[in-house]
């Protein structure tokens, strides 16, 4: 609650973390090395924050001398931490960007299971939004474009089908991954495979 | 493979986590498939994700295993899978500090960063900068410059942000990119603009002129990014604060104009900047407050919170400015976010009328248990302020506070309550008894030693003067029975105070003391024995001297001296007299001068200026063994502010040496100075023992060099000395833009002079009024008139006491002296300093007759050397004189010994400084007159 003026700096975000509904860490990044340097301190901070925030969806809290904005979705909690003097709305911009980007990448299924299945995408999104505490991007559309990631769960269905059809051709499929092909191409190649198998 | 895994999980329920039972060793084993040909991107991606997930969970990777995995990972650069490549970058960043030889990926990353794929370029730059060190940076400098001005926003942003990270590591290199950053700042992309602005500011923040120029440019041209606007507002308000610019400055106008920005973020930033400005009038606050008022009814919780928090701050200084918002604040009392509700109530408590207090207190007590400790502290502070405003309400408040005291809470919270109750007691004599009763109840079950000792100290101070002191004895003695050593010791001291002030209680106190003498702890026993003996004398003077008197030395100073003492074992006992006295005057200035890192706890005792100097000097190996720092002078400017090199001098006095610290700043951006030394030519018997040069002095970065002067000890008549100072250095010309110096330089010198100060009052005050030897200062048995009153120095009783204590007397004395450090009385000790401002200036005395008529901010005082020592040595030795008489006498003869301070002005003071690049000589003398009181008692004055 100290009112000392803020040194002008781009280092806005002190930490960002995603917890599940038991308060376990799914992802956490601490950008200020002076703040909670050890894992134990980080965990206890997360626990404290979780205990104080998981009951009521209040959007903002002030704990341990830190401004924390948060948001929950089904069974996960997103937190963005800044210093006490930080502009709360800047932190909110980061939180909203994180949430909206993830919701696009996960096709609106912002829940624990889906998040864990696409953990690589989540890491990349966080990396695109914040770099070492500096806000890198605040527009979710831009973030999604830059990450250029497609959620795996639906792809998996395509793979099941394709693997089933191609059988022994798995190695080849891996070399030329589907993630780089459009849906049309997938269908095209599936059609061809079926054609060949019938012709045989 | 993943799919099968998924199916199993689905059966076992949705709560499972595919990463739950990951074993580090198993994952590293799996990482071997990185080496397979052809690369299977999907599986590799999954394994990389697992590795990053493990790192993120805090799993510890040994250097060998991390290096192994890292090297295997580098093979994945052969694959063209986008996500896989991006995950490789992430792994590089995560492992940069764990693995060895991460720089082997430099060429791969450089290739990606300059390649055609825009998706890779930005992240590659960021990964590359993460693994680059200062030496490698030169190699990629060309690419970085190109990347900063790249037309793809993500590339440009990444390069700018990475440069910003590297400013800390290699400022000089990144500084050369300033032109590119300037170009990027005019980009159309909002994030590029923001990052460029941030980088430019970080590169220029030491150069106020450049910052001003930059601000002017951007405030005129206008920016698109709300983030950049927020940054500009912060820079502007910092600049306003530094230059103490009035509120009619264009910067203030700019901030005010931001109140009409279309982004809420910018509007809030501007309002908050105005609110935090010092000396803001109500009229200037009004627009900011009305904006915040609008925010109060926003549907966004964060915005309401931000608004009410800022209003709360306004209310601390200008309660009347916030009254307009009372209605909106009332609506927030029932906000579902308790933080907002608490802040609203505390704001109302500050602005509302006396009649609403009861209602608000009732409201807040309904949910006080739900809010976090931080906000409870805010509530307590609000109550504390309220009690000052409406003293009649203290009973309501006291009840509320005592209820809060009973609730659970952390140390900070309890301390805030205790402090609040104590302040109420101090201001409100009527509330004293109830307050003390609540505190007594609190210490019955208090886990915080610091608070218990503090309360015991207060009980000792206030208790004896209440109508029925006897009822506190029980609480105090309970502590002796039940608590830890520190609390027991504090309780004994408190008991002694009751015994000393209440004659009817004395017999019972003595009985209790007798019991305490059986205590298992040394300190408690020592105190009990000591107090017992003092009390038995029934001498008011002794009581005053040994029971009520606190510690008058500076606590950090004492800590340092004791530490020093333990480092250098010696036969001699620790001498309390070597510890600097607490100097309140110096402490006041600490914030402006001290380069202290902002501590997280605002209450943390900030070291005084002198303590900081002592630390700095102690870090220089040449100055070890000089003993404790006795006194540091105020800095004196030796040059005018606009000259090419700015030099100021600070004198540090030790018992046999003086250290001159020259803070030099190079204001020429085309020169790099090296091996800077200020050579001093003494005129008298003084000799310069050693120079410590400043190794390098780049443009606008201040550096310090030192000269060590030995005070002559064979010639007591050498009371003054004049030094002429010449700054000698090696100049290397350098490119003003890049800062790269030429290979060879040449020696040069620059004669420094004292600048005639503009302000007559400054010139009149000598900078170096100080110094007596430490033993002189510390032999002061009592400080100031207050001290005289409290401690009449009659020799008789003390002698009696000594004999009655017998051989143990010395030991007990020492125990008594150290007492305050060990804890119990420390809080009280500080308070006592405040009571005697005279102490602050104990050593600040001046002796020039010419200055007698000047307004004298500090009282002067002198005391003959070592009376206490004399008294301790032989009972009955008439060491103690009458202070008042002494002082008067010394004032006279102190002046007499100084036939006059020479005040010469530099004959060539006006020789121009307008031809940079050449060296000119100014004449200039640093006059220093050092007067010696006794051998090691020196007092020096620099006369301007």
From TrEMBL, chain A:
It comes from the Eukaryota. The keyword Transport applies. One of its GO terms (biological process) is intra-Golgi vesicle-mediated transport. Oligomeric complex that consists of at least the alpha, beta, beta', gamma, delta, epsilon and zeta subunits. GO terms for cellular component: COPI vesicle coat; Golgi membrane. It is found in: Cytoplasm; Golgi apparatus membrane; Cytoplasmic vesicle, COPI-coated vesicle membrane. The keyword Transport applies. Belongs to the adaptor complexes small subunit family. Keywords: Cytoplasm, Cytoplasmic vesicle, ER-Golgi transport, Golgi apparatus, Membrane, Protein transport, Transport. The gene is COPZ2. It is a peripheral membrane protein. This is Coatomer subunit zeta. Pfam families: Clat_adaptor_s. Residues 12-150 form the AP complex mu/sigma subunit domain. InterPro entries: AP_mu_sigma_su (IPR022775), Coatomer_zeta (IPR039652), Longin-like_dom_sf (IPR011012).
